[in-house]
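User: We ran a pulldown and think these components assemble together. Before we commit to crystallization trials, I'd like a predicted model of the whole complex to look at. Sequences follow.
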Amino acid sequence: MFESIGILSLTIWVPIVAGLLVLATGGKDGAAGGVDGQRTLALLGAALGFAVSLPLWTGFNVSTAAMQFVEHANWIPLFNVHYALGVDGISMPFVVLNSFVTLLVVLAGWTVIKTKVAQYMAAFLIQSGLINGVFASLDGVLFYVFFEAMLIPLYLIIGIWGGPNRVYAAIKFFLYTLLGSLLMLVAMLYLFFASGGSFDILVWHKVPLAMSAQMLLFVAFFFAFEVKVPIWPVHTWLPDAHVEAPTGGSVVLAAITLKVGAYGFLRFTLPILPDASHELSWLIIGLSLIAVVYIGLVALVQSDMKKLIAYSSIAHMGFVTLGFFMFNSWGVEGGLVQMISHGFVSGALFLCIGVMYDRLHSRQIADYGGVANSMPRFAALFMLFAMANSGLPATSGFVGEFMVILGAIQVNFWYAALAATTLIFGAAYTLWMYKRVVFGAITRPEVASMKDIDAREFLILSILAVCVLAMGVYPFPVTEVMHVSVNNLLEHVAHSKLMPLVAH
Amino acid sequence: MTLIDFLPIVPEILVLVMASVILLLTAADKCPTAGYVPSLLTLLGAAVLTVVTGGLGTDVLVRGLVVVDPMGDVLKLVTYFAAMASFVYGRAYLREFGLLRGEYFALALFAVLGMMVMISSASLLTLYLGLELLSLSLYTLVAMQRDSAQASEAAMKYFILGALASGLLLYGMSLLYGATGTLALSGIADALHGQSGNTMLLTFALVFIVAGIGFKLGVAPFHMWVPDIYQGAPTAVTLFLASAPKLAAFAIVMRILVLGLPELLHDWQQMLAVMAVASLAIGNLAAIMQTNIKRMLAYSTISHMGFLLLGVLAASIAGFAASLFYVIAYVIMTLASFGLIVHLSRKDAEADTLDAFRGLNRDHPWLAAMMAVVMLSMAGLPPFLGFYAKFFVLQALVGGGWIALAVLAVMFSLIGAFYYLRIIKLMYFDAPIEGDHRIAPVGDAVGLLSFNGLAVLGLGLLPQGLLALCVIVVQASV
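Assistant: Here's a predicted model for the assembly, 982 residues in total across the polymer chains.
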């Protein structure tokens, strides 16, 4: 069936197999002695997963918009379903980012997770493989399988290792995201028949579709992706999920799974339904601006740090979708850069909150104050990520936001003006939180006794700090990768699909 | 007619003979627990004979009473294996409750024989005979636990409602006979072909027949008996009657509606659509409120049967094949889920409440994982078998232009996902109630459970084989 196992298959199956191995070693709780072995095995699996994803970056041809590292095998020939994988400049960075984040998450859960360690590590590894599958799929059914299956590990992660209200959050998370994807399934079946019996996403890109059909399909895909992004007003699952999830779960949720939704817009909505996308762009732009402005204000009043960062994520993702629907290369590339940057920054912020939570077991801003006195090294790193979150130049957070604003101003001055308020709100809620948590005099004895970060935590945070700074100072390697693919996409979207395309 | 003409029904003859032998031995009190191994061997032998005598052709035999076709063979094979699995799962439970007697296996084999006759029926007469043989055996099986008031009540309800359903079906058949003058299904199809006939009479006949079939399938609004019987019957019996008989019920839907009454397609399509949507709604909504897992799974069965009807009403090869795939997937999943409940049940503590699953992951991570796989599969999540079952049915629906029905079906699946997730929540997120799960592992049952659970995953990763089989046999048989 497989002529040879390709790099993309490896990025999917190495973590999954590693996860299953970890699971196999883990018996019941209390099987003492084995825990370290399980952790090490998980780390090896994650490291190997990251290592096999690196050739995607180094071997990537930046001068073509075609799919690369393509793999193709029959899967369900009766319905023309294929195991088809491939990445372009839009999807490749996310495969690498995801494999990278998994490595950090395994490290971050090293000592913190004490119950069911094997299951915890296995869930993250399997999830990592499934998410790589989402980004690498070129077949609709395969995409759908990965898209849904990735819910299962995260559901378990939130539900087993989460906070007090974890059950509610886990089920809400699951049902919200399932609601969206089920409609997408029907939409995909429609496309299967409309395209004359193909589940190939690239074939779907070329199918001519009437406006009415495009509108309905747009709604179906929109449901699937808006819940994942999430776009106001279906964002309410995210703060709940974030607050209850363990640190690792929050990191993956913010850094990776939100990106799946935004990626869906670029892979499905825009190229398959260009006319409906243009026609309904006002809707997405409106909702994105609400996310940026209103959710920014909501973030300002949060007393729970995780909730604050969760709302900040929604606002930042609003920027991403705003950029996509500007239909120019500044906007789309800016959105993509913002996605990657947000992956680093939000992941790092959740890790920072996790570091504090491990020591004080509280996420309330009011319980802290003066952390800089007891944890100076931590405070310095936290400062950098807070600055990046508020979009300070020379951090990665600035690049994406600036590019999206540039894109927006070409379309409409007011879009840009409203979007730019994020620089004010973002700075306000992040830095105000930072000030209340880190600066000032120590008011509580518990804070005074907090130990500064150890070598493991320092390593994780400083790796992320380097990424944030490097991307802020020199984003070219990232934009170079996506440039050709984005331009190709925009050119494709500019053509109407209402009339069958005339053969050249 | 010579003996050779009976060759294709040798499996039926074998099962009949063996059931009688087991019954005689039990009556003579030769070996009180006899039946377990002979029954398994009988079913295995029947499976071999079915494979040997089977082929891709369609034969109508025994004066037009019996049809042997590939679809029937596949359904029969799954029936044998479902019955065998339910014996293996149920053995420890039956022994514990003092039900491990020859009568149990004799009755179960008679039920299997009834299903085989239903699956192979080419005439209304055979069909009804098979149905009654199945039903009467099942009534008795439900009532076997004589000291349980709940089981007796369930058996009584089952008998009364089942008899009513049989009556409805029989009445419909008699009307159909009056309208066409024949009992043979192909004869009925020929007689109705191209003639408008007495529409009133035919419509009446159809309504009664569809209602009767609806009862037997357990779809809304004829579903009232399902939760009570599933809950009241001994769990090992529930396992048996929730699995294999659905295959036979699917077979009679295909035989009567698709092969016998294609001329009334538009009428029964509408009826099935109403029944399917009602089943999806009632099954999924009512399941949410249940605290008894047998009852919850009963409602889930109702919704699954609704989904199954969606494939039939798409009325295309793809639709029938999707339904066949669905019913096989359903049986595999049901065997695993009820198998696990049976496995966890003991005399002093029946594991039939949802609470019995609390914290299962702590004590039995492997069993919990298997149950989780089955629940996710029933919820229709990839990459498990249940997803493809739903996917193929939806594909047939969208292909037939029933997009609104497809959207409705997925929306009800969303509601359904909630109560399946709740089982996973109980097993993984909650702490166990102290003192539960003190079960002595039974080797063969755990082995089969693992195989069963992994089949749900394996067939989900590579569904092509089973799907291709379904398409081929439906093409050859319809």
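The first strand of chain B starts at residue 59 and ends at 61. That may be worth checking against your pulldown data before setting up trials.

User: Thanks, that helps.
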